[in-house]
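Input structure tokens:
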């Protein structure tokens, strides 16, 4: 879905965005959607690292891994449904794509933090397996 939104944003853009486009200067809807798509891609990449590392950290418990994978699938389905509702709420405005992408980014950052808290950090003073990801708003 993310790639489709980015592709549509670029397709309807009056000018093609270069790889060095500065998202701080985004003003048009296609530019804003493009930058929101980049933010989502970055958040998803980070979450995937934390998820894979979480599974690796818990590999000693063969019953836990399938439940973690099932939870990840359920979470992804929730994100899609919830953020689709955000898109629908804004369906009459050009902001709908950015709102949906931002919804997905926020939930992905929250999931990354949840993975870190539950599977990669310790309750005592033992250092965490990975650094604490940025706390979502």
């Amino acid at each position: 879905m993310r790639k489709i939104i980015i592709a549509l944003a670029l397709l309807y853009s009056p000018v093609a965005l270069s790889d060095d486009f500065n998202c701080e200067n985004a003003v048009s809807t296609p530019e804003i959607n493009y930058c929101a798509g980049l933010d989502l891609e970055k958040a998803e990449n980070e979450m995937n690292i934390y998820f894979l590392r979480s599974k690796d950290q818990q590999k000693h418990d063969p019953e836990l891994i399938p439940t973690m994978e099932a939870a990840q699938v359920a979470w992804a389905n929730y994100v899609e449904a919830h953020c689709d509702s955000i898109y629908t709420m804004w369906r009459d405005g050009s902001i709908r794509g950015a709102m949906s992408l931002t919804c997905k980014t926020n939930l992905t950052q929250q999931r990354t933090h949840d993975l870190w808290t539950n599977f990669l950090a310790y309750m005592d003073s033992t250092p965490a397996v990975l650094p604490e990801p940025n706390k979502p708003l």
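The first helix runs from residue 2 to 11. Residues 29 and 83 are 18 Å apart (CA to CA).
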